[in-house]
Amino acid sequence: MELLWKLLLLLSLVECMAGNGVLLRPVFTKQPGSVVFPLQPGENRREVVFSCEAQGHPTPFYRWKLNDSFIMPRLGSRYSLMGGNLHISQLNKEEDIGIYQCLASNTFGTIVSREASLHIAYMENFKTQRRSPVRVREGQGVVLLCGPPPHSGELAFTWIFNEYPSFVLQDTRRFVSQKTGNLYIAKVEPSDVGNYTCVVTNTVTKSSVQGPLTPLVLRVDGVMGEYEPKIEVQFPEVVPVAKSSTVKLECFALGNPVPTISWRRQDGASFGRKVDINKASGVLEIPYFQLEDAGIYECVAENTRGRNSAKGKLSFYAAPHLTEKPQDVQKTIDDMLVWECKASAKPKPSYCWLKNGEPLDSMEHDRVQANNGVLTISSLNLADIGMYQCVAENKHGRIFTNAELRVVAIAPDFSQNLLKAQTLARQGGDVLVECRPRMSPRGVISWRKGKEALRESHRVTVLDNGSLRISNVTKMDAGIYTCVARNQFGVASSAGSLLVKEPTAITSPAGHLDVTVGESIVLPCQVSHDPTLDLKFTWFFNEQLIHFGSHWAFFEKIGGRSAGDIMIRNIQLRHAGKYTCAVQTKVDSVSIATDVVVRGPPGPPVDCQVTAMTETTASVSWGPGMDNHSPILSYTIQARTPFSLGWQAVTTVPELLGGKQLSSTVNELSPWVEYEFRVLATNSIGTGEPSKPSKKSRTKEMLPRVTPGRVNGGGGGRSELVITWEPVPEELQSGPGFGYVVAFRPQGAQGWMQAAVTSPDASRYVFKNDSIPPFSPYQVKVGVYNNKGEGPFSPVTTIYSAEEEPSRAPGRLRARSVSASEVEVTWKPLAWSNNRRRILGYELQYWGERQKQDTASVIRTVGNKTSVLIRELEGSSTYYMSLRAYNSAGVGPQSIIVNVTTKKPPPSQAPVKIMWNTSNSKVILRWDQVHALENESEVTGYKVMYSQDKHSHPSVVETNTTSLELSLPVNQDYVIQIKPFSEGGEGSSSQITIPKIAGSIAKGAAPESSPYSLVNLAALIITARTVL
User: Fold this and answer.
1) Where in 509-667 does DSSP place strands (E)?
2) Alpha carbon separation from 775 to 42, 377, 710, 721, 795 (Å, rounded)
3) How far apart are CA 705 and CA 729, in angstroms?
4) How far is CA 488 from CA 331, 406, 440, 442, 554, in A?
5) What is the 3-state secondary structure (H, E, C) of 464-481?
6) Region label for 702, one of left (φ > 0), alpha (ψ between -120 and 50) or beta (otherwise)
7) Are 139 and 218 in contact, with CB atoms under 8 Å apart?
8) Most-buried pick from 95, 739, 749, 856 (CB within 10 A)?
9) CA distance 973 to 993
């Protein structure tokens, strides 16, 4: 009992210190690391320090183990402790190498550090001073042995040839193994003769030693012949490789000729980019080794005499790495502890558990169990307190993780878990009042109502965990309840009140609503409830929460604080289903469901298919779709072909398809056309979506029934009869092999001549025969046929055979210059028609004197015109002209050629020095005379154009003087242009703007500037000065 109270006192102290934020249990802040000590010959200072530091309160003390045995530092020994650090002086390579661990302890337990190894690197001298000569034939392979001296630490090898610093260079013929140190020469040559020395370097101590000379001598008894490769350097059958390390495989062969070395994986996988293959030195290097790099690797040596190979397996291994660690935990007496420890490793790790640095007591297997990293301790007691460590290990390493177990024994305490000050309960419902004091071990819990002990009954029950449960709550159950907890260390209590509230009830009846698509409905949710409680309304559609807002735009809340009504606007078929209104208060929750049926147009019919086809009919069947709660009244069939514009209604038998009709015959179809059909259903609400289209089906072929349209003809060349028609569309050809039968005869003849046109797209047939008189009437008709036979002919039409070209040239061709850019041409017409030809018009050719007739411009007239005006000519230029008549057969002979010279161009100078003044309603204009240049025609007058703005149609006045008086209202703006004209046409113009004048008299002038042509008009705004 005294021990128990001491433990309780200690735990109280621990809790007090923990409350002040002091770290109590020992925790490593520094752990020892492995050391490789380079031991130099003759070195006096041989000291190693292993670091170890831990935090904790009380301050931890330290101990050390070497190879699982405690080190006992004594005065004068080679071992000493400074804090937690272990100092080793005067290192002894036989006694001090091994595995070291630090143990840190305080009153809360002991923890063990990770393992740290100590190795001493050294290298001694070669013992042998002389070696016998190695005698070989030229062409033979040879191995020169190195035989390194006693050492510790990784070595590197090189060879000296004859004397320093002449080193052996490695290539495909010479190889120095970094595993054995030996020098391999695949094929000896005379230049290899000499003395060889092996140089060994310790990569840790950086010291080097040279071996004895090895002479290489050529034998004189002949030259070695060719032989197949013999592999002398190869890797072991199994090479274990640590994760993320670098592995190097060596392979070299002797042979004559010198063998080549190649590498491959037995599984056929390609080498990644990280793999380095040094073909010259026979080394395969794989850095950052991973699981996917493991496998069987093969080295192949080959020459012209043969090949040889060596295989070895690279096996992947990884030291343990913790993936799940136990955490510090505080438990109560008699509770159960379960800690799980997991580590990844290859091979799989084994687990053991330490308590305070020692293996767990194997005498308590019934209470303490460790299985595959899981530690279970049942019926905890104070003796279980301490520091625990999980150790995961495999043959490649060991890893530690720490956790603290506290087992507490305390008197009952409600400070962390007081009873709720108020517990609300619904009248007629159940209520649970929780009582969860902190105490260890578990004690006894009792209840009081008011000052009286509470007695259990069929309604009132104290649960095993101490909580109070009351069923079928009544108003009499309201009051103050007190939970009392006791154990051997004390008593504590906590009280709270129980308030009983009126139950919540939904007054709206559960219902069934039947609505039509597009309507708006209200779903009611009216309630009665305790007025002191707030309500929360939640709506569900088919058990999915309704989120009111933009994504649920059809739904809108319209109830107040005590009603949860919602409105569904423009209801759709997808809104049919079960709607649930849930009402929640702090004491209870109730709900009501309403089933909504939405009636709408039918859904699409199903399984639309064509069961039979004739030349003009199709038998179509289908299955009914959803009627959407309104019986289907009728069906409609639509068809589509490659030639139709979308879907078209078709005629059926029977004509009206009732709601029970699930098949029909579609008639009036076109033969030999591919059809798709679909079906639409209609009920009292409307017509629904169409079914999926049927598979494409083609009607059967038959004799063609449709004749070509617009049969006509005429024209063509001499002795030709041209017959034209409008082709029959493909959908009306009634079958394959469609073509035309063209029939024709001279007017008044009895028999018909016929010709077949096999192209269904043809629209023209030309019959050529020298016996055909020109411009003679013929009767023609065009029939149709396909593979089934011939169809009907079109009505008979009269056309004319080809006419002859005009035989005469027009007479009296005259040309007259109208201006600098225009010429009028006239002629005497020919007779319009005779029995062999017609005149359809005339073709005029004209060309400049520097051009040839074959580049002439052409103007064609239609009908019996006798003149034409040629425009856009150059002034003062000579042009030549000729004229021919034409008809459908071509053009006739050319007339005589005439010429004409256009007049001089009009003056290019625009009027200048324009002056104006106004008086009452008159505008008086004056300007300087325009003088024509030598190559221009003389001015014969001026045109004055005026308008109220640039865009309105101007008025025009002509004058042969340089002044003009206009009667114009002066209260408006005017734009005025003045241009000269001559027999060559109109010249360049000047433009002014006369602004609106406020007074009765004003005057102005255009500024002295360059004239403005009609092409580039710029308004000159004249500032007027009013004369007072």
Assistant:
1) 511-516, 521-523, 527-528, 536-541, 544-545, 555-557, 566-568, 577-584, 589-599, 606-613, 618-623, 632-640, 648-649, 652-653, 657-658, 663-666
2) 136, 125, 21, 9, 22
3) 12
4) 18, 20, 9, 10, 66
5) CCCCEEECCCCHHHCEEE
6) beta
7) no
8) 739
9) 7
Contact status, residue 721 vs residue 808, Cβ threshold 8 Å = no
Compute the distance between CA of residue 83 and CA of residue 61 in angstroms, rounded to an integer. 8
Tokens of 168: 């052996």
Give bridge partners of residue 215 from the DSSP assignment: 195
Whole-angstrom distance, CA of residue 64 vs CA of residue 81: 9
pLDDT in tens, 957-987: 888 888 888 887 767 778 888 888 888 788 8
Record the tokens describing residue 3, joined without a space: 């021990």
Between CA 645 and CA 241 the distance in angstroms is: 75
Q: What is the distance between the alpha carbons of residues 919 and 915, in angstroms, rounded to a whole number? A: 14
Instruction: Round to whole Å and give the CA distance between 72 and 390.
Output: 26
Cβ atoms 527, 564 nearer than 8 A: yes
Site of tokens 């109590």: 24
User: Contact, 780 vs 796, CB < 8 A?
Assistant: yes
In this structure, are strands 589-599 and 511-516 parallel, antiparallel, or unpaired?
parallel
* CA 392 remoteness from chain centre: 45
> How far does Cα 713 stand from its chain's mean position?
63
Phi and psi torsions of 640, nearest 5°: -140, 140
Using CA atoms, how far apart are residues 343 and 320, in angstroms rounded to an integer? 6
Cβ count near 427 (within 10 Å): 17
Query: Whole-angstrom Cα distance, residue 634 to residue 731?
Result: 30
Tell which residue, 1027, 913, 1013, 1024, has the closest CA to residue 963.
913
Q: Is the pLDDT of residue 698 over 90?
A: yes
The DSSP letter of residue 365 is T
Integer Cα distance of 876 and 857 in angstroms: 19
- Structure tokens belonging to residue 963: 């002044």
| Rounded CA separation 994/699 (Å) | 81
**Which phi and psi (to 5°) does residue 1014 adopt?**
-65, -25
Residue 975 burial class via C-beta count within 10 angstroms: exposed 0-12, middle 13-18, buried 19 and up: buried
56: which 2 tokens? 């904790």
The tokens describing 393, both together, are 């290990």
* Residues in contact with 163: Cβ distance below 8 Å, sequence separation at least 6, in sequence order: 195
Is the C-alpha dihedral spanning 487, 490, 494, 495 positive or negative? positive
**Are the CB atoms for 547 and 556 separated by under 8 Å?**
no
| Closest among 242, 255, 316 to 282, alpha carbons compared | 255
The identity of residue 465, as a single letter, is: N
Nearest CA among 429, 418, 528 for reference residue 477 = 429
Instruction: Burial-class residue 224 by CB neighbours within 10 Å (0-12, 13-18, 19+).
Output: middle
Residue 362 φ then ψ, to 5°: -80, -5
pLDDT in tens, 543-594: 999 888 765 678 888 877 678 899 999 999 999 999 999 999 999 999 999 9
Per-residue pLDDT reduced to its tens digit, 860-884 = 999 888 999 999 888 889 999 999 9
Close Cβ partners of 200 (under 8 Å, ≥ 6 residues apart): 123, 146, 148, 149, 151, 155, 156, 157, 181, 208, 209, 210, 211
The size of the chain, in residues, is 1028
